[in-house]
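re: that chain from earlier
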Amino acid sequence: MPSRDGALTRAARFFDEGGFRSLLARLVEYPSTSQEPGAEAALETYLAEAIRPWLERMGFAATIHPNPLPGFGPILTAERIEDPSRPTILLYGHGDTVRGLEDQWRPGLAPWGLTEEGDRWYGRGTADNKGQHALNLAALEAVLAERGGRLGFNVKLVLEMAEERGSKGLREFVAAHAEALAADALIASDGPRVDPLVPTIATGTRGTYHFDLVVRLREGGVHSGHWGGLTTDPAIILAHALSTVMDRNGKILVRDWLPRNGVPATVRGVLAGCPVGGGEGAATIDEGWGEPDLTPAEKIYGWNSLIVLSMLSGRPENPVNAVAPDARAHCQIRYTVDSDTAGFEAALRYHLDAHGLQQVRIENAGIRMAASRTAPDHPWVRWAQSSMERSLGKAVQIIPNSSGGLPGDVFVDHLGVPLVWVPHSYNGCKQHGPDEHLLIAPAREGLLAFAGMWWDLGEDGTPGRK
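^ sequence. v structure.
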């Protein structure tokens, strides 16, 4: 007799007997970086060879579409419709990765091959995002097998190949295919848990707003001996500008950048007692850094942060005896949906002028990835939490948005779906750098969590359904 326990047992057996490790190893072998010229063919091949045949074996109708924007990776859609009166879930993932950075991985590791060491699987895409969408699909396969080829609900999938380039073209694609992609909820995986040991649901993501601060004073450098102490140094002006924007302890001083009414009560409530831990190899959580009087969880899940991503004046790799002609800093604000991004640039201009820094220009200001959030107490969020806790036998932490960015806003804006992000990774996974890896134990939990949710979707009691 098919059962929920039977579905979870199938999923666990697949994982424990090495089936998932072998699957992930095959996916990692595709050098599907969207950030390196010459790798374009691998983006298409990953979808055509690794994903579409797998989906078709599970009864999906799958199509690979060109990106609406030239020069960006393709987008795969698939659907498996059993009964339109039953719930329809939209899955999302991305098969593209960042650069391989082959020469930077430590000896014994390589980006395009899976290496197991202790409790970790190393390889590019293991955490971001091949491992994560593969877990969700493997769990679906286990439920299909347990129910004899049926699910009891409907599934649609969007798998893009340009997420690491800002999901370019995804908004246009979803807008053009909104009717075909209509669903009751998005349930998908990317990003880290709040702690390696704590299963997590994120109901949105912070957005990213970028801008350059530029001090450009002359056409070329001038002799430091003749002019040092006489002519203005743009690097010093830039340093002073940054010091007015953020204090030495990381508190943002442009207060109009911050959530308009502070941390909302619903956000503060769901974050009460929320742990924040990166695990071994992560950066430190420095108690005195950032907004005072906020908990670490409130700082990264309920507040905004400013990061200087790069600074340049002169030629650091080959300094010469000259006062540089200019200086530039590329800055990023990670912001929540409670912020007024339309006023960010004007607030910064006013702030700089008030400090006598008219020489500092603001260039290239704008949103790279928009913020999104579903209410943490939304019925689909609470349903997912209950299902996961039943499968895993432990508490599941809900956060109002993850600390990083994902294109959830695209699906909210054009499909109106609630967002249920269930991350399978952790903050110390080294995604986007060398030595990227997936922790084995959380991956196993992720597989079981999704097997339970997929089973429960075929039963009565889903939100808005009887």
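The radius of gyration is 24 Å.
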